[in-house]
Task: inverse folding
């Protein structure tokens, strides 16, 4: 059973627009009743400053490895059935989705917890970087430091 | 001497002016020694807090570098 | 601003299949960077018992009123931007979505908290009932009692 | 006498054998009195823990019923 479930997990990087509904529905399994999905996208306004667009890049081979490690470790900790993570790379306009994390489970509570932990850890450990382009400038967004 | 590939991403790629370079190290060089040499070569890198990876895994510095290894130098990640 | 945001909220009942991605994307606003979505659907297996399908019915006018009250009260408590709730009624097959709750926010943490609270309270207070059809029988699923 | 509409849903509709009925109550009847009369008329309802609503709002029982009000009797909700 554990093996069957694991085959449903996926971690992907793509430059194409993400379809949040399609990703969320890919992990629906017969023993599941709930899927929690985080849709992260480009925010236009941050404390009165306007973002024009973002550009994401990744250390792709390592990012996929780290995403898979993350999935394996979160799986161990929660009563969940499947995890799907897709991160988009390249230029993204306002409102466009940069990351989707979906977690399916028999019952919703562990799906909420696992999904929140996955995005927190992804932002801390997966080697992806974003550059923000705003009116009059551009800046590499500073992330948190991972503690090893 | 061993040949390794060194990768830069995002801000470190801008500072180094390249995304990839090959470097030579003596046999049995530890990762922290290798990374110190890389930063020496691109001193502006040291203005940032840096993270290091050996073969797509975060390095703690103790790793012994082998011929053909892939090293990477980058700043704190900001995906999501 | 509060007024502008409120116009984005929606509570709906429908007998048509739900499109989780479409619902989630309807509440994306310029100040938002994250949407958390719960997709609740028909589970096939519950502790070794097989469900064939479910039938949902609602006290529709009161259900919409309770959903709107719930949205208003959750809005007060969290730094969130918009809420969308859609519940499907009628017969639903295995894996088909019965409810979607989406919450958008500038930052993800309150969106997770609000979404989880919304589904918990919806299940406790919104007058909707489901009947489970299984091999050899059918039963009205017993809900929790709301404390007034 | 005042005329009110009484609605049943799910399990209570199955027990009552109908989804809607009109009933007459004396002026100034309190909700708990009205609901007790409804349950008296469909005694099998009392085998379940019941919830009551007056005009699409959960009732606490103190409400004074008015002509034309919409009452509802149902079991614990199970949506989601």
Result:
């Amino acid at each position: 059973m554990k093996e069957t479930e694991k085959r449903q997990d996926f971690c992907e990087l793509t430059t194409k627009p993400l379809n949040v509904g399609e990703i969320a529905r890919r992990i629906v399994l017969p023993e599941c009743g709930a899927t929690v999905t985080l849709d992260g996208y480009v925010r236009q306004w941050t404390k009165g400053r306007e973002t024009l667009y973002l550009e994401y890049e990744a250390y792709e081979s390592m990012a996929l490895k780290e995403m898979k490690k993350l999935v394996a470790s979160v799986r161990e900790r929660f009563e969940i059935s499947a995890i799907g993570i897709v991160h988009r790379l390249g230029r993204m306009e306002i409102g466009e989705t940069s990351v989707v994390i979906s977690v399916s489970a028999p019952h919703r509570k562990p799906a909420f917890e696992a999904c929140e932990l996955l995005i927190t850890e992804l932002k801390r450990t997966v080697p992806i970087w974003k550059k923000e382009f705003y009116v009059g400038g551009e800046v590499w967004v500073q992330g948190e430091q991972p503690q090893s | 001497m061993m040949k390794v590939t060194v990768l830069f991403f995002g801000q470190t790629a801008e500072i180094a002016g390249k995304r990839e370079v090959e470097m030579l190290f003596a046999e049995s060089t530890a990762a922290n020694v290798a990374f110190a040499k890389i930063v020496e070569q691109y001193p502006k890198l040291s203005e940032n807090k840096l993270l290091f990876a050996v073969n797509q895994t975060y390095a703690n510095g103790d790793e012994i570098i082998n011929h053909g290894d892939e090293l990477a130098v980058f700043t704190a990640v900001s995906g999501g």
